[in-house]
Amino acid sequence: MSHVLTTRLILCALALCLSAAAPASAVEADFNPQVEVRKDTSHPREAYYVRGSIIIRAPRERIWALMTDCSATRRMVPQLRRCRVEAEGEGWDHRKHVLRSGPFRLTSIFRSDYDYLESVEISLVSGDMDVQEGVWRLTAIDGDLTRLEYEAWSKPGIWVPDWFIARCIKKDVPTILTNLRNMAEEQAS
């Protein structure tokens, strides 16, 4: 057999092995937070677009209970100093969050609209944010696996350097998703 043919066969075999292994590693990677952050210049206020997702080994009910509980939220979001429900009604509430990140302190009051075990839609009511809108979605995958997805547009109402905002989001969103995953999975044990 010629050297060229042997090389081609080895490369084909390697490609076949890699392509067969890719789906397993892609699925396993989903258990770690996947996050995309970019400045959305098409948004009317040039807000930051954030999309994140993670697979959690817990049922949606457990994750939902953590997401909608202020004391649990304070454990998930390291920068959150206060969380308080200001008003509530059937399927919604207004929450006040006070966050500290570096030298910046932000207060935000936002409306959460709840579609039980499916989604939480968030919209700005008042506070230091110029833009705060988004949605959390929970999808049951198989058994007790849940995919949690987060999509939002965010921009503080005070001047903060773009590099600082991007750095904070890239650091904070994976931390929040990981903390929520760990809390939900710890309750399972």
Question: TL;DR?
Answer:
Helix content is 37%, strand content 44%.
- Secondary structure category: alpha+beta
Helical content class: 25-40%
Average the pLDDT over all residues and give the rounded result. 83
Tally of DSSP β-strands: 8
Radius of gyration: 21 Å
Overall geometric form? globular
How are the strands of the biggest sheet laid out side by side?
Answer: 1-2-8-7-6-5-4-3
Strand content: 35-45%
SS element count, helices: 4
Largest pleated sheet: 8 strands, antiparallel
H and E order: HEEHHEEEEEEH
**Model regions low in confidence, pLDDT < 50 over at least 5 residues:** 1-26
- In quaternary terms, these chains amount to single chain
The first-to-last residue Cα distance is 57 Å
Describe the structure.
With 189 residues, this protein is α+β, with helices and mostly antiparallel strands. The protein contains four helices and eight strands; from the N terminus they run H-E-E-H-H-E-E-E-E-E-E-H. An eight-stranded antiparallel beta sheet has the order 1-2-8-7-6-5-4-3, with helices on one face. A hairpin with a 3-residue loop joins strand 5 and strand 6. The longest helix is centred in the N-terminal third of the chain and has 27 residues. The N terminus is likely disordered.
How would you describe this structure in keywords?
single chain, 189 residues, alpha+beta, eight-stranded antiparallel β-sheet, 4 helices, globular
Secondary structure elements and pairings:
Blueprint lengths: L2 H27 L4 E6 L8 E10 L2 H8 L2 H7 L3 E10 L2 E10 L2 E12 L3 E9 L1 E14 L2 E12 L5 H27 L1
Helix pairs in contact: 2-4
